[in-house]
Structures are given as C-alpha cells and as structure tokens.
Amino acid sequence: MGRFSKQMKQALDAVRAMSPEHQDLLVLALMERAGVLPSPPASLSREERAELEAALAAARRGAFASDADVKAMYAKHGL
For the chain, which residues make up each domain, given as ranges? Predict the structure, then answer.
C-alpha cells in the first residue's frame, strides 16, 4: 500500500472493521466524490434507503418469501 496520511490510515482501519456491504456503500460514495465513477449511482430517498436496509437485514436473517408467497404474488399480477 502506498503512503497515506495519519488520518487516511485511521479511516482505512475503520473501514476494515465494517461489513462488506457497508464497505461497498462507502467506496461508492468515495469514488463518486473523487470523480472516478463513470456515472454516479442512483440516489435513494430516506424512505427508499430505509426500505433497502430493512430488506438487506431480512435477507441476512434468512427471512425470504416462501414459494407459496411468490406464487401468490405472480398470480395477483397475472404472471
């Protein structure tokens, strides 16, 4: 790794302690700020971000829709 300031080293240590999901969110923000993303990621409203975080938490707990729930949803929408 190259030479970093003391603050950058502290920040990298903090990032290493984060979950991979949080690291990915942080790196997207950093890359956008640095201007190295080909296009910025979509912005989410606070409500959208809360829904996404709740869904990710449910997935980590293994709380997925049952086959019957999925089948009912498809039937409801004519799929």
Answer: 6-76
